[in-house]
Amino acid sequence: MNSRILGLAAGLAVLFASTLSTSASWAQSITVAIGSEPSTLDPQLRDDGGERQVNDNIYEALMARTATGELVPGLAAEAPTQVDARTWQFKLREGIKFHNGEPFNADAVVASVQRVIDPANSSEQMAYLGPLSGAEKIDERTVRIITSAPDPILPARMYWLKMIPAGYSKDAAIAEKPVGTGPYRFGNWDRGNSITLTVNPDYWGGEPQIDEVAYRFVTEAGTRLSGLMAGEFDVIVNLLPEFAGSVPQAKSVSGLDTSVIILGVDNPAVKDVRVRRALNMAIDRGSLAESLFAGNAKVTKGQLVLPGAFGYNDGLESWPYDPAGAKKLIEEAGATGTTINLVGEAGRWLKDRELIEAVAAYWTEVGLKVNVEILEFSVYLDRIFDMGNRPDSYFVLNSNELFDADREMAFAYEPGQGGASNSDKALGEAIRAARAARSEVDVEKRKAAYAAITKKLHEEAYDVPLLNHQDIYGMSERMEWQPRVDAKIIVKEMKVNE
After folding, report:
1. Contact residues for 190 (Cβ-Cβ < 8 A; gap 6+)
2. Packing angle between helix 443-460 and helix 425-436, nearest 10 degrees?
3. Kind and range of the H or E run holding 455
4. Which of 55, 261, 355, 385 is 20 to 30 Å apart from 180, CA to CA?
């Protein structure tokens, strides 16, 4: 009897071990190589692309977008209703919990709003959130979002604002150990190397196929490419376009990014409009699009506003490439030999360093001295958001997830907001007036107001818009994923074919 029992136990042990082995083989993990290490995992305070690429899988917002850009309810149960000119009401989904067990409810929404708008937090994300001024709990599943002025795109702003747990919102640990409602939970952060997320088995939207995702921080595009070819990475961002035909899979999609150099209009080096116009005329944008991006970028039509976004000005033309004219303007302004500081970074965006250095070379050719500062990404963010010490010029890829010119107006132009580098009070008033036109009757009025603003910006050359970019990804053979127009890397939308 004992021998039979022992034999049965041994058999069960073998079967159990076999089952564990089989289950383990079902687990799917992937590695994604991104261009920069997050400066924080706090989802509300910095405007940090590396942070978003990770946190987009941990946190969620009241509204979401489909892969093609359609605005749809997220944590909200349905589309919001407008109570009055400055109040929107959201009904919330039931039964959702944060990864730490806290319930997602109206208290969480109120805490999230209050935290991001708190002046003490100096959130860099306020350029996305415009006149957001508060939130009010009606009941556990109903909340009202309040703005300081009429805001026609408030629902789109709620696609940006990530929801955090009410109880965790004041805990400093949120910067290193994020807690959201999303399909993936924070695993660990190996500083300087990687961040790992694990699947949330209790996710309200259904369990994803991929169980674990590791984000590797790889600044150099060539290194990301080598890692993909060696089988080390499954997805890489900013694939070098000239190698699109050499990788297992390459996919591109029209992106939301416009490369631009924002000018510190109040700085002596670029205060003269003739110098600013010369900076634009000195650059051969068409050559940059072809030589650097193999046609995966288009020349901007004289503006930072994204084509297809509300407020895009079809009447503007691209700046002409006219180095002789640029040099003449600089001579007329008495600016020959003037030093212009150009601040940038390397690795966050495709061929960012190359683009910065090319622009510097063009400016040098027309008689200027250019001091290029390539900074580590977190230092770069500190520098460009230093309201009291704006650079003469800084390079950025501006993304427009709001699909509305208000994003550019707030980030780059409205004095005192985002990355704006001017003190033009009249411009600020015009931007606020354009934003205030809220009803359908005023749509054309608002469009006309933005057209007037973008025309002025073009004439005064407050910036140097460069290219509208496509997003290009490289993938391993086993990956199945269609990139999104909003550039989010949503792992729950991915599958692995073994």
Report:
1. 196
2. 160
3. helix 443-460
4. 385
Q: Which residues touch 427 (CB under 8 Å, ≥6 apart)?
A: 413, 414, 415, 453, 456, 457
Structure tokens at 457: 């910006």
- Three-state helix/strand/coil letters over 388-430: CCCCCEEEEEEECCCCECHHHHHHHHCCCCCCCCCCCHHHHHH
Q: Are 82 and 76 in contact (CB under 8 A)?
A: no
| Block residue for tokens 């050559």 | 287
C-alpha neighbours within 13 Å on the C-beta side of residue 252: 19
Task: Please list the alpha-helical segments (H only) found in 282-409.
Answer: 285-293, 323-332, 352-365, 377-384, 406-408
| 271-274: long-range pairs with CB below 8 Å, 24+ | 272/333, 272/335, 273/460, 273/461, 274/329, 274/330, 274/332, 274/333, 274/335
Q: Give the count of beta carbons closer than 10 Å to the beta carbon of residue 31.
A: 20
Terminal-to-terminal C-alpha distance of the chain: 45
Beta-strand runs (E) in 66-162: 71-73, 81-84, 87-91, 132-139, 142-147
CB burial string 59-72: b at 16+ within 10 A, e below: bbbbbbbeeeeebe
Q: CA–CA separation, 205 vs 377, rounded Å?
A: 34
Say whether 262 sits in a helix, a strand or coil.
strand
- Amino acid at position 158, single letter: M
Q: What is the pTM of this model?
A: 0.82
In terms of Cβ atoms closer than 10 Å to its own Cβ (0-12, 13-18, 19+), residue 15 is exposed
Question: Contact 261/463 with Cβ under 8 angstroms?
Answer: yes
Per-residue pLDDT of the chain (498 residues; tens, 9 = 90+): 444 433 433 443 333 333 333 333 457 999 999 999 999 999 999 988 899 999 999 999 999 999 988 999 999 999 999 999 899 999 999 999 999 999 999 999 999 999 999 999 999 999 899 899 999 999 999 999 999 988 889 999 999 999 999 999 889 999 999 999 999 999 999 999 999 999 999 999 998 999 999 999 999 999 999 999 999 999 999 999 999 999 999 999 988 899 999 999 999 999 999 999 999 999 999 999 999 999 899 999 999 999 988 999 999 999 999 999 999 999 999 999 999 999 999 988 989 999 999 999 999 999 999 999 999 988 999 999 888 888 999 999 998 888 899 888 988 899 987 788 899 999 999 998 887 765 555 788 888 999 999 999 999 999 999 999 999 999 999 999 999 999 999 999 999 997
Quick one: which of 399, 373, 357 has its CA closest to 488?
399
C-alpha–C-alpha distance, residues 263 and 279, integer Å: 10
Residue 302 near residue 451, CB atoms below 8 Å: no
- Tell me the C-alpha distance between 43 and 40, whole Å: 8
